């Protein structure tokens, strides 16, 4: 079996793409901040709305 001394072009492309993916953030910092602010505004009212609905269900089951 003969082993190539030079890597194939596909192998080089795969390695370069892999390194670039690990070194480059997926989202820009501005985009990440925007998403975090949007999520903070949505999750707070949603979690407050859930809490009262949990308690009445528990009390109605015990009746």
Feature tags:
63 residues, mainly alpha, 2 helices
Q: How many helices?
A: 2
> What best-fitting shape do the alpha-carbon axes yield?
rod-shaped
For the record, give the distance between the C-alpha atoms at the N and C termini, rounded to a whole number: 78 Å
Task: Please tell me how large the radius of gyration is.
Answer: 26 Å
Give the helix proportion (percent range).
over 70%
Overall structural class, as computed from helix and strand content, comes to mainly alpha
The profile of the biggest β sheet is:
none
How would you describe the overall organization of this protein?
By secondary structure, this protein is mainly α. The protein has one domain. It is built from two helices and no strands. It is rod-shaped.
